[in-house]
Amino acid sequence: MLVKNASVFYANSKNDSPNGRGEPEVEKVLQNLAIDIHWIHDKITFPHWSDIRQNMNVHSLYWIQEGEGVFRTDDEHPVSPGMLFYLRPGLSMEMKSGSAQPLRITMILLSLYTLSPSADNRGRVEPLEVLPLPFLVKPGKEQGKQLSLLFHRIAADWVPASTGSQLMTQSLLYQLLNELLQAEAHAHPDRGQGYELFLRIKDDLERRYSDPLHIHDLAVRYGISSSYLRSLFQQYLHQSPKVYLSEIRYEHAKKLLLYTRLTLKEIAAACGYSDEFHFSKAFKQLGGQPPSVIRTRSDGQG
């Protein structure tokens, strides 16, 4: 994984994709992301080669395998092996190879979409304007090796006319984007010492949502105060741990209402609610509708 020990550099260009985005946005993108592959190419250039970005209406990932050169947006960016450039749609760029060591670039061109879920299972698909990635990513040595192998697999295995190849390549691209987005989310310089602790507690909530968890007991388990636990979630997730746990339980309960025949009592127990009454009350507060309405809708869909 790229999350640990990855170093990320932000190019000083007004054309760069936005940074400073938080964990919730990254997870939202990953959960609802659809990938359409346009082109994957292992580009081998020659000394003094130059070109401009031709396909500006797509998302592009350029992995630098070999050589040296310069990319120019509003600023000039020296290019060397082990760099990754993310080009959002609409970003213009000039490219030049050096005289002694021409560039070799793995180019991946994608259209990306987000699916907006709906209670009736008829989500809306919309183009994703930009990924929460910086323009320039420079991973550490070990992570760079992993990235290089992954880009090599993607370029070597992609066959445009093959359905099987398309599916396998998409799975590799999901892996790639997940690692890049998670690394970017974890690499902000303002992450304090409590960030790793926050991630551990957050993961604990996500895995043990069905248990009768209490914030005080959770704080004791991690050797911190309840107030510090709340401050960690406010700092990094912008909501309390209680609210986050409620949202997790709500999402699990909604799926059980839609796709199982479990009773409300059984769903309440499966999702960590003390009883059916508290389940129904909490569900309506979060979703605006009682669980019986979701169950009725599920019955209507057959």
TrEMBL record:
Protein name, per record: Helix-turn-helix transcriptional regulator
Keyword Repeat among UniProt keywords: no
Pfam name, any one: HTH_18
Keyword DNA-binding assigned: yes
Top-level taxon in the UniProt lineage: Bacteria
InterPro entries named in the record: AraC-bd, AraC_XylS_family_regulators, Homeodomain-like_sf, HTH-like, HTH_AraC
Originating organism: Paenibacillus tritici
Record's keyword terms, sorted: DNA-binding, Transcription, Transcription regulation
